[in-house]
Specification:
The structure is a single chain. The chain is an all-alpha fold. The protein has a domain of about 45 residues. Helix content is about 85%, strand content about 0%. It contains 2 helices and no strands. α1 runs antiparallel to α2. It is elongated, with a radius of gyration of 17 Å.
Length: about 70
C-alpha cells in the first residue's frame, strides 16, 4: 500500500468516525427524548434535553478524535 493510499484511507476513516458521532449522538438523543416524552407525557422537555445532550456528546467525541491531528497533544 503506497503512502498516498494510506493517507486517503486515513482521511476516509476520520470522516466516517465524525459522521457516526454526529448521527449517533443526535439521533440517539432524539429517539431517547421522544420515547421518554411519550412515557411521561412531558412533550418537548426530554426531547430538548437529550437533543442538547447528544449534541454535546457528539462535539466532545469529535474533539477527542480530531485532537491528534491538530498537534495539541499533551
Amino acid at each position: 500500500m503506497s503512502n498516498n493510499d494510506r493517507k486517503s484511507m486515513r482521511a476516509f476513516v476520520l470522516v466516517s468516525t465524525i459522521t457516526s458521532y454526529v448521527l449517533g449522538g443526535i439521533l440517539g438523543g432524539v429517539f431517547l427524548g421522544l420515547w421518554l416524552d411519550n412515557m411521561f407525557g412531558a412533550e418537548p422537555l426530554f426531547l430538548i434535553v437529550f437533543l442538547l445532550f447528544g449534541m454535546g456528546t457528539s462535539t466532545y467525541g469529535i474533539y477527542k478524535v480530531v485532537q491528534p491531528f491538530l498537534g495539541d497533544d499533551e
